[in-house]
Design brief:
The complex is a heterodimer of chains A (364) and B (301). By secondary structure, chain A is α+β, with helices and mostly antiparallel strands. Chain A has 9 helices and 20 strands. The radius of gyration of chain A is 25 Å and the shape is elongated. With 301 residues, chain B is mainly alpha-helical. Helix content of chain B is 71%, strand content 6%. In chain B, the strands form 2 sheets. Chain B has a two-stranded antiparallel sheet with strand order 1-2. A two-stranded antiparallel sheet of chain B has the order 3-4. The chains are: A alpha+beta (364), B mainly alpha (301). At the A-B interface, strand 6 and helix 2 of A face helix 8 and helix 9 of B.
Chain lengths: 364, 301
């Protein structure tokens, strides 16, 4: 297992800059996730680590060795593809044996290793089948087996769970994490599913438009997003945003010119100190920190109309409408709600995020 | 058959017009009649389509007198005289052998070179790959006949007239655009991530192509080879112009069976049969592979 270091990596496809100056260090035995929306460049970064794409500038180091322009076969990396990429004309056994045969291992060695891997992944019964005869979950395990059997320096995975159905996904999330912890592997995987990223990774890198937006542990990124993009991308249901104006004389935030949110003295002071020109802000509040009640609470609150309810079992997601804005609140099942009902909504300042409307940077 | 029925819904009754079969048996009967009619039409169409072939083959088994008779004779005792004349007196054996050698060689060469070319067009991104691909296709658009005269002069200058080699080289070149275009289409359908998996597993791109892409493309390659074989086998114009004697293939040889201004129909029939029967048998043998190769691109694993 080894460390991966990316320095100043960039890649252009024609005129499109897919990856812009990426600096990243993946520690040994770490599970790192590259997270971001489609087209943000995360798969390109992964492929540059594998050697399937060559960067326009920058360097890639694997295990202390510079591999920037080496062919994939010389890099000692194993890759699990999104659609598994199993060899359709070979049996499962031969599929897993492929990398070993290329390295001219003896038949007995190959058999040994495959037996161990098959035991680990519970695929002993399907060793003689062809890929076309396997289910999605089995294909994924064979693909994993092919990667694991090589005992490579690093594992790369391209959207490993996106080809599975929802139930399998939930199962594999935990199974994969446990597997790689047992193997003590350095893993870099790419996904657009933030739930997958949060649950499976030791550290996450959120990317957008070719640039790294934030690096950190999942909890770090969830609780302290660096900008409104990261805040909006992580968390399900997504964070609620309200554009507002900062009135420094009154010390209040004004939303939609109607709603007035009073700021505590310390927060007001902090904002004034930050920037004397601060005017347009964006409020962010996560759905689980919004409180609703049928009667007007003693603290600050406002009235909003129930747009629709989404029951989730023990919890409920209430879609609320205030003037032109729609936002969501997550509450425990309790109150009976009907569409169009007016209820009182409130939230606490300590759960509030404030972002600069133009740059998106977090202020609090 | 449309029928008015009274139907009871949960809250009210209503009269609707609907299809009804008085019984399941009548429905079955209708279906069987329909099927029978379809088969009848198909069989009649096949008979009409194949009739010329049957007649041609039949004519080849007649004697000279029988072949020229008007009104045409339907019932006769088959004789192999015309075949004997062709093979023993008119050298048909040589022509058949030439056809076989030339078709198979040019098919092999053009498929090998064409597949490699198609692979590079689809897998390697280089400037102008699209233009080159289109230029290759455009070569096929021009009628080959327009090139007969220049080709003849080239052949004459090089002293290659009437040799098998010249026809093999020519046919290979002629079929190359077709092969490249077909294989390009098929290779584009093969997902790249399997080759990439092989490359990450330790193969160079060439080894990955050989071990992974080639087996997957095999049905397509065979289908293309069969097409090219048939095209070469039937090629007339250039064979006629370039090979007058020793290297003559079957299609032009049919012309030699005109004697003293009359066409010897029984011998023409025999010649045509010699040309068509091997290829029909061959196609029947390989039709499974052919269909598999042609529909390969439409299936996703």
């Amino acid at each position: 297992m080894a460390e991966v270091v990316l320095k100043n990596l960039s890649k252009k496809f024609g005129k499109v800059e897919a990856v812009k100056n990426i600096d990243l260090t993946v520690k040994d035995k770490e599970l790192l996730c590259l997270l971001g929306p489609s087209g943000c460049g995360k798969t390109t970064v992964l492929r540059m680590i594998a050697g399937l794409e060559l960067p326009n500038s920058g360097t890639v180091y694997i295990g202390g060795r510079e591999v920037t322009y080496l062919e994939p076969k010389d890099r000692d990396v194993a890759m699990v593809f999104q659609e598994y990429a199993l060899y359709p004309h070979l049996t499962v056994f031969e599929n897993i044996a492929y990398p070993l045969r290329v390295r001219r291992l003896s038949n007995t060695q190959i058999k040994d290793k495959i037996e161990r891997v098959a035991e680990l992944l519970d695929i002993k019964e399907i060793l003689s089948r062809l890929p076309s005869q396997l289910s999605g979950g089995q294909k994924q395990r064979v693909s994993l087996g092919r990667a694991i059997v090589r005992e490579p320096q690093i594992f790369l995975m391209d959207e490993p769970l996106s080809s599975l159905d929802a139930q399998m996904r939930a199962v594999m999330r935990s199974e994969l994490k446990r597997l790689f912890k047992k193997l003590q592997g350095t893993v870099i995987f790419v996904t657009h599913d933030q739930l997958e990223a949060m649950s499976m990774s030791d550290r996450m890198v959120v990317m957008s438009a070719g640039k790294i937006q934030q690096k950190g542990t999942p909890m770090d990124i969830f609780e302290r997003p660096r900008n409104s993009f990261v805040a909006g991308f992580i968390g399900d249901p997504a964070i609620n945003f309200f554009d507002c104006e900062f009135d420094r004389k009154l010390g209040k935030l004004i939303v939609n010119e109607v709603l007035v949110f009073p700021l505590s003295k310390s927060l007001n002071h902090f904002l004034c100190m930050r920037d004397s020109n601060l005017n347009k802000l964006r409020m962010g509040i996560r759905p689980n920190f919004i409180q609703v009640s049928a009667t007007k609470p003693s603290s600050w609150s406002f009235q909003a109309e129930v747009y629709i309810c989404e029951p989730q079992g023990t919890e409920e997601i209430i879609n609320l409408q205030f003037k032109q804005s729609l936002f969501k609140a997550r509450v425990n099942v309790g109150m009976k709600m009907t569409m169009g009902q007016k209820i009182w909504v409130s939230f606490d300042e300590k759960h509030l995020y404030l972002f600069d409307q133009e740059t998106g940077q977090t202020l609090t | 058959m449309k029928v008015k029925k009274e139907v009871t819904f949960s809250s009210h009754k209503k009269t609707v017009v609907t299809d009804s079969y008085l019984s399941f048996r009548k429905y079955e009967q209708k279906r069987k009649i329909g099927l029978f009619l379809i088969y009848l039409v198909l069989i009649v169409t096949c008979l009409i389509a194949f009739f010329p072939l049957f007649w041609m083959f039949g004519t080849s088994l007649k004697s000279r007198v029988e072949a020229f008779a008007t009104p045409p004779i339907w019932f006769f005792s088959p004789k192999l005289d015309s075949y004997k004349t062709l093979f023993f007196k008119k050298n048909a054996g040589l022509f058949l052998w030439n056809s076989i050698i030339i078709s198979m060689s040019s098919s092999f060469i053009s498929v090998v070179i064409g597949t490699i070319g198609a692979y590079s067009l689809t897998r390697f991104e280089f400037k102008g790959s699209q233009s080159i691909a289109f230029w290759i296709l455009s070569n096929r658009l021009m009628p080959p006949v327009a090139r007969v005269l220049p080709i003849f002069f080239i052949g004459q200058t090089l002293g290659l007239l009437d040799t098998r080699i010249s026809l093999i080289v020519l046919y290979s070149a002629m079929q190359l655009p077709f092969v490249i275009w077909m294989m390009r289409g098929f290779l584009q359908e093969i997902p790249r991530d399997i080759e990439e998996a092989a490359m990450v597993d330790g193969d160079s791109w060439f080894a990955a192509a050989r071990k992974v892409t080639l087996p997957m493309a095999m049905p397509a390659i065979i289908a293309t080879a069969i097409f090219v074989l048939i095209l070469s086998w039937n090629e007339f114009t250039f064979a006629f112009i370039l090979a007058a004697g020793r290297a003559k293939t079957l299609p032009p040889s049919v012309l030699t069976f005109m004697e003293e201004g009359t066409v010897l129909w029984h011998e023409v029939g025999a010649a045509a049969s010699i040309i068509s029967i091997p290829i029909i048998l061959f196609a029947l043998l390989v039709q499974k592979n052919l269909v598999r190769g042609l529909t390969f691109g439409m299936l996703k694993d």
